[in-house]
Design brief:
Length: 517
Amino acid sequence: MDLIVALIIIVVALIAGLVVGFVLANSKLNASAKAQKDNLVKEAEVKAEATKQEKILQAKEKFLQLKSEHDKLVQEKNNEVAKAEQRIKQKDTDLSKKLEDTQRKQHEADTLKQNLGHQLEILNKKQEEVDKSYKRHVDQLQVISGLSAEEAKAQLIETVKAEAKTEAMAYIKDIIDEAKLSANKEAKKVVIQTIQRVATEHAIENSVSVFNIENDEMKGRIIGREGRNIRAFEAATGVEVIVDDTPEAIIFSCFDPVRREIARLALHQLVTDGRIHPARIEEVVEKTKKQLEEEIIETGKRTCIDLGVHGLHPELIRMVGRMKYRSSYGQNLLQHSREVANLCAIMAAELGLNVKVAKRAGLLHDIGKVPDDEPELPHAILGMKLAEKYKEKPEVCNAIGAHHDEVEMTTMIAPIIQVCDAISGARPGARREIAEQYIKRLKDLESLALSYSGVEKTYAIQAGRELRVIVASEKISDQESEKLAFDISQRIQTEMTYPGQVKVTVIRETRATSYAK
């Protein structure tokens, strides 16, 4: 029992010790937490005070900045007000000066008016005296001549009229002669300036085209077995294909440039593709025709845009594009029409006519050469009918139909189209001439000059544009050489046909030779 009681006492003592320890520990923890809380509060108060001071400083800086900007704005406003006041003062000063000048001028005008009134009275008195004197002298003249004033006036008028008529006739004759000379001179000047301001390249076209191939083995594939490929190609394009010994070349022969171009493009595509057989040939040719038709329309549109010709009917635009594949005496028709359009525009501007109408008529003057059906009509008449069909202006239609004198000219544009067409066709090298005819014309020129006595040598140079004649100095004098040049030029003008003009130059040379021995 004593042991149990002792144990109980010991346990109670331990429990009491633990309770006391726990109470002491809890009190320590409370004291520590309270101290930490006090520290945090103090730190928060310190940070809050710092933040407060920082915000106060920022607010002061912002206030000072706003105050500075406001002061600056007020200063600018004050400056503007000062300037406005200065301008108002200056205007007041100017107005005061102008008012003073006006008052001074008004005073001067009043003074001048008074002086003029006085002088007018004096002049009226003098005029009355002159009238009286004139009447007295007229009465005296009537008494002396025995004629009244009306009779004398009638005689004087008749005499003056006769003299004036004679002088006027002479003056009119001089004016007419001068006008003829100046008109001829001005016309030549306009034509020369027009030609000089337009320069177009001229391409001589033939009736054959050459297609180059990489090697001669391709010729066999193009011909095909027993010639079936080449026959199908010729039937589809309408072009004669010549395959001869010419290395790496095939020749297309056809008078229609459009067909030759279709054949060239189609064969190029076939050779590039490598599949060459009748069915493929027909397919490619048909596709090429459509592509070329699109290119023709695009060429027509581009030409109209380049020349500034707007509002053309789509069919006329297509015909303009077809001109690219047509030629006249070897001269490309599209280039010729573009050149004529530019020439017409310049000449119309020089003469004060409508430039746009002239350019439009110049571009369309040869559309009768590129119709689809090609009826039996002159190309000028056909072009005029096409222009009328597609609602072109009457002056444009008349200029197209009259540029070869097939209809009567009714507008000032028509002769300009005719002249510019001739200028374009007459340029050196513009149109092709057969070699035999060209050589014959040069020989005829030289033979004509050699037929004159005293001529030793003749040379036709510059493609027949100039004829140089060398004469014997002992047979022909300087004066005779001038007459010879005139006679030769007149014979060439009357007996020969040639484009442009031919310059005749007679050369007479005197040589003195001596020998020193």
